């Protein structure tokens, strides 16, 4: 199956939390990078961050989410690249209308693949970032005790299709991830069949849980954080979790630098082609992060005692396939906690 070990890689949403660490990894390993951003101000920040790399990084301003969802907008960005890492996606976790997340997620993904199809003489692999919410719902019991890549979150899609704006808000973003990923696989299989299996590029989907860790992106204050990294700050620094939510309810996460590594490995490993890959580093309860962070700041709450034998996981994920195919070793929880707290201190947030 197609894979690359050098050349030019397109990274969408280049100014984002995960994308900046991915660009860092790519540049350190000798790749050329072309990134998409939505405004010139975002491009200026990214250029300055990587100024020592000179012309190994180029940036393309593609406009806002609505414009990116238009067919052909990314044609020029895709021209001449060897692979695509599609990391950008609408991340509104509390929408009031499912169409505000579903339409840009689906159309943005499909239109990127249409651009890849136009340039299948150079593009060899496309990697799309999904989420574990595409596998199992947050608002209903999981379909199995341990979820692997064969599962889809049918519950959230059904909720949104049947109730529209009246659907549970917590099902809207997951439905967007399911529908965008399914649209990608359907496009890939359909176009590959049209060309007798000779599409030129193959597809990989990475499926992470929470992504934590230090940040490189342009945030001036903790109030500007969003998604999982906001959740981390509030839980570890501000101590918003108490009782069972702090000591008994278990989750899974991946360090953002390890997630960046999985992006690059998914380009270079031939056997990753055509696969969905759950990339999960470790399980945790929030108290573990408090315990790991306190040696680096006395401003971290003490929290509460916890018994590992009593931890309960609403859902667990089997990441054996990605570990086998990508061969990645994950940072410890302690390292993620330490580096994140040191990052907060550098930024003046602690």
Looking at this protein, list some descriptive labels:
350 residues; alpha/beta; seven-stranded parallel sheet; three-stranded mixed sheet; 12 strands; 41% helix; 14% strand; globular
What would you note in describing this structure?
This protein is an alpha/beta fold. It is 41% helix and 14% strand. The strands form 3 sheets. The protein has a 7-stranded parallel sheet, with helices on both faces. The protein has a 3-stranded mixed sheet with strand order 8-9-11. It has a two-stranded parallel ribbon with strand order 6-12. Helix 6 packs across helix 7 (169-194). It is globular, with a radius of gyration of 20 Å.
What is the end-to-end distance?
Answer: 48 Å
**Mean pLDDT metric:** 94
Sheet with the most strands? 7 strands, parallel
Q: Topology as H/E string?
A: EHEHEHHEHEEHHEEHHEHEEHEHH
- Strand numbers in spatial order across the main sheet: 3-2-1-4-5-7-10
